[in-house]
Design the sequence.
């Protein structure tokens, strides 16, 4: 049995809490949050702290702290703070900054004899793993990642910033015909537009100019301009009723050749009804691995690429060889 | 650059040879075979030996020996022989015997300071990995493995033993409606018959009683009796023309719940035009891992569950963090 702390109690933090409850070998022993009073209403039986700098009770044992804040503002600050005291797991997902963040966490983790698993979850995380496995098993192959159908928080937020928008929800949709071509063994460099489309549901302010809103969204650089985007205006009631969940998912495909000309296709797919709960579930499996790595004498930063599957599992290696091989 | 030996030069051995040629960091330096004269016609530039007991030249360097014989007769004998002298990789696939074989190889490998990766390939191997990952990420989930469409060597051999059968090829076909139910989140204990059917192509001896052959095949215990089996009689020419390849593949599905009642589905699929070539490609990636594990000071037996993805890859960890996360 090992002890877990949750750092940041939003959607992902709640997902981690619920995942801990499904795993008999771990226990929630602390929550860190900027709004302790609000969280205390939700969580009665676990001590709640405003930050790692506060004086923590001597009796408090935390084996792994799972960082559940945002990758932009929170994790780059909280990671270096928490790894000084505890093993950590985070889902840092700013892909381009992963090498730099890894380096930083690796140094502090090593200096403090702790283990940090960074950028865990499904992408980065499981999808990274599948991209690497595909490339290892099929050298010179081509890998494709499709996302969705699912809600993208970043794109929803971007649409929400348009003037006259009260609420927005963006669904990323993989384009079936592109998926089909990859599955059929066609090798192609797709444009962004050929791989995904975007569907946005908007609750507009009363009297707002809908055509202007639509235009501003579909022409927004980086987020929308490179895709075909549909904008639908709905009521606040409809938003609450039909778009409250956070489904997501996606596909990692690897298409390669063996021998003279034998096409081999590997495909990983996940279909998630709750993105934050599933991500939470992956993070707690990584917390188990972090706890074991530390116990085995390791320190430093790790990604899911550095962790053998057996370390993520609640079963012993002997059980896995008997039941899962 | 590390040096690889192939032990056993049948379909899988040829697949391994072709995979080595696609990986710039490894080189074939020896072949062990019971029929050296025949193999010498195929391979001119690599020394060929009848067995590991023969006196090997002092200059011969072998970092990893890949065992490509059969799991029933060859690997249980060759594994313990080769692991005394070299690191090894094998595709031992008698699932029920894996724990015992692991134990044996682990002891000899440790005694000799070598690394043995056992039961590598796609099943056991990648599929084992995906079963364990699915269970780790979704505790209390249910896993399903479907095989095919593809040629099963064991079932083809069994049909070939029926009196009056000159040649046989058996295709294992996953049943679409069962796959569909799992994908839709239905949890069910399928019978064997509900998950797979078997289609057999037979070249019968002249004058043989086809109805008796059909009956003997479809009623054969273990191999066919538990499945719906179709038997088709074809000519030797048709067999050669349409059934010379070894396609295979399959699906690993994990269906679980997070939170209160959110169904999460993970699916891994491979579609292989050449089973032995793809298996060979997986084995050489595992040979890379064996070589690195040994270099890092490890010894003993490993399965793919014990090997981090980064060790299988031809890229450095820094390259992987930059390009694949």
Sequence:
């Amino acid at each position: 049995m090992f002890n877990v702390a949750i750092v940041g109690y939003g959607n992902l933090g709640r997902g981690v809490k619920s995942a801990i409850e499904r795993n008999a070998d771990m226990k929630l022993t602390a929550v860190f949050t900027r709004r302790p009073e609000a969280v205390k209403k939700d969580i009665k039986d676990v001590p709640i702290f405003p930050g790692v700098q506060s004086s923590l009770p001597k009796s408090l044992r935390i084996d792994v702290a799972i960082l559940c804040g945002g990758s932009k503002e929170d994790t780059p600050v909280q990671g270096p703070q928490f790894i000084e005291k505890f093993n950590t797991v985070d889902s840092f997902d700013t892909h381009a900054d992963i090498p730099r963040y890894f380096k930083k966490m690796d140094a502090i983790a090593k200096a403090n004899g702790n283990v940090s698993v960074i950028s865990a979850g499904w992408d980065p995380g499981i999808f990274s793993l599948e991209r690497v496995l595909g490339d290892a098993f099929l050298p010179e192959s081509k890998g494709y990642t499709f996302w969705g159908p699912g809600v993208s928080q970043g794109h929803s937020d971007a649409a929400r910033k348009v003037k006259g928008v009260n609420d927005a929800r963006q669904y990323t949709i993989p384009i079936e015909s592109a998926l089909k071509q990859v599955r059929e063994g066609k090798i192609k460099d797709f444009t962004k537009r050929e791989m995904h489309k975007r569907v946005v549901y908007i609750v507009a302010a009363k009297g707002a100019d809908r055509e202007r809103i639509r235009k501003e969204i579909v022409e927004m650089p980086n987020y929308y301009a490179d895709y075909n985007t549909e904008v639908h205006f709905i009521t606040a009631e409809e938003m609450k009723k039909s778009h409250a969940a956070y489904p997501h998912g996606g596909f990692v495909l690897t298409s390669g050749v063996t021998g003279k000309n034998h096409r081999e296709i590997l495909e990983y797919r996940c279909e998630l009804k709750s993105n934050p709960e599933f991500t939470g579930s992956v993070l707690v499996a990584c917390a188990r691995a972090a706890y074991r790595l530390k116990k085995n004498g390791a320190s430093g930063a790790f990604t899911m690429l550095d962790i053998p599957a057996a370390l993520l599992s609640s079963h012993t290696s002997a059980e896995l060889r008997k039941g899962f091989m």
In short: Chain A touches chain B through 65 residues (CB under 8 Å). The domain at 2-123+276-323 of chain A is CATH 3.40.50.720 (Rossmann fold).
